Each structure stands twice: as structure tokens, then as C-alpha cells.
UniProtKB/TrEMBL annotation:
Keywords: Plasmid, Transferase
Record PANTHER family: GLYCOSYLTRANSFERASE (PTHR22916), UDP-GLCNAC:BETAGAL BETA-1,3-N-ACETYLGLUCOSAMINYLTRANSFERASE-LIKE PROTEIN 1 (PTHR22916:SF3)
Residues in Glycosyltransferase 2-like domain copies: 34-195
InterPro entries (alphabetical): Glyco_trans_2-like, Nucleotide-diphossugar_trans
Name of the featured protein: Glycosyl transferase family 2
GO molecular function, one term: hexosyltransferase activity
Amino acid sequence: MPPCQTVCLLLVIAVVGCILSFREVMMGSEPQISVIIPCYNAERTIGETLSSAAMQTLAAIEIIVIDDGSSDRSAEIVADFARADQRVVLHRQVNCGVSVARNRGIAQARAPIIAFLDSDDLWLPDALATHLDHFQENPELGVSFARVRFMDSNGNDTLASSTARVQGLAPQHLLYENPTSTTSTWVVRRAVFSAVGGFDETLSHAEDQEFLFRMMVLSSWKLAGLDRVLVRYRASVDGLSSDFSHMERGWRCLMDCARCYAPDLVAAHEARATAMMMRYLARRALRLQTGFGQAVHYMGRCFHADWRLAFAEPRRTFLTLAGVCVYPMIKALTLIK
């Protein structure tokens, strides 16, 4: 064989070898991060969500989708993705709820770090790589999160982002509100689940806050966020009026669970936590065209629980109060012909 042909053949073999080695690393080796996506009747959004996970700049991942008894084409769409991308794995189960689905995903995950993504949310391309850097720089960090950018149910940008604190978080802050906004921004060391367990499957509301509170009081792992947007979160007013009492009952269950772990801490902060929850419900009620009466009710309970919240957080409190006061005037003006 002429020398030039030999060189060309060796180059081809080297290139093919590199390609096969890369595929083996990406497809066959242990992933750096396991992505868990619980899915229930999400045929309209799951494809875009999967694409945002698959197109991460960090390629050494596995994507575990737990279909929670969907009755639409969600599982078929995921199966199509799995045939095209070996990193995608589909597990199907009867409908058991999101906490059961997430816990099953945790049990199936192979990576030392686990990320969660809801089936209608989207990641920015460098989300996982950024969180991985955050972990490497902070060995005491158990859960990393970031800010979210809100979009409406159609995926349109609302120009609003989360504003809760991301640093200096203490257990009582988890009683006040959920600073992470959504589990779609969570990236968690597997060791955290080994230390404190998974999601409480008996809770139907605030199961994410309960997990974070439990981690912070039962272990030495830290919760800290990044002051940048890495998630596009799909917010919807659908069902906001469905059951405020259900949301409050769920929050009461959270407080009961927290009281089991840290009774003195809960006793010291329960009044402020109650006031903030009532203000939160009032703000949600104001988003409803028929929610004025509920908003008044919850703001009254807010001040009854802890009137000092008006001075501790004047901006958010008085903006909510202003909404309660101004809403009936706006409503009256719309009725004038």
C-alpha cells in the first residue's frame, strides 16, 4: 500500500475511533448528572422540555422520564426521544402523584448528582454545567438552585423573574416561602437523599419545602442559589380558584411535619410564617377576576397573624394591600358604560 494511502487509512481509523470513544463516553459510561422528569398528560410541552434537557452543554447526563399514568400521547413522545437519544429512559407507572414519581426516578438514577425538571418547564443550555461548577466550588452544598424566568401557559415570556433570596438561607426561611420557586431549578447531591430520605409521598402540597426544611435541620448539607436565571418556568392561572383551602391545608401539613423535626424553631417563627402564607394566598387571589373577596379575607388574616410583617417586608405587603384596595375601584370602572 502506498505511504499516502496508509496515512489516510490511519487518519480515518483515528477519526472513527474518536467518534466511537465519544459515543461510548456519552452513552455508555456513568453520567455526571441524572435528570428526573415526572410527566403526567404533558403531550403539549414534554417534547420541548426534553429538548432543553438533551441540548445541555454538559452532555454526560442521563434523562429519566417517569410517566405517571398519562392518558394522552406523553409516553409515546418520550419513547420517540428515547429511540433517538440513548440517554433518555422512559419508565411508566400507574398514577401515584409527583412525589412518588420523583422518588422512583431517584431510585433509578445512576449519577452522584440529581436534577429535577417538570414536564412543562425549560432549562437554559448551560444550566447543568453551571450547577456542577457551583457544587465543585462548594463541597458543603447539598442543593443548588437558580432564579427562574416566568412564561405564560403558551410559553410567552412574561418579563418577570423570581426575586427571593438565594444566599444566607436558614431553616425558618423554608417556613416563610419557597425560595426556589420550583423543583425545576433543583440540582441535588445523591448523598442528601441518603442522609434524609426522599420526598414525603403523603403530602399533596409544599412537599418541596418540607424536603428542604428536613435537609437543613437533620443534616449539615446547605441550600444555596445562583443569582442568575437558568430556568424558564411555565406559570398558569388555570386552577388558581380551584381550592385555596386545599393549599392552606397543605401548608398546615408542612408546618406539622416541620414541628416534628424542630418544634422550638417552628414555635418561634410560626406567626411570621402564617402571615406570609396568608399574604401569598391574597396575592394569588388577586390574579383571579373573581378573587377579591378571598384577597380581603387573606390579607385580614395576614395582619392578624403578624402585623409586623408590614414593617419587615413593606414593599411586598403594601403592594398586596394596595391591590386589595384598588381592585374594587378598577372593577367598578369597567362596569361603567
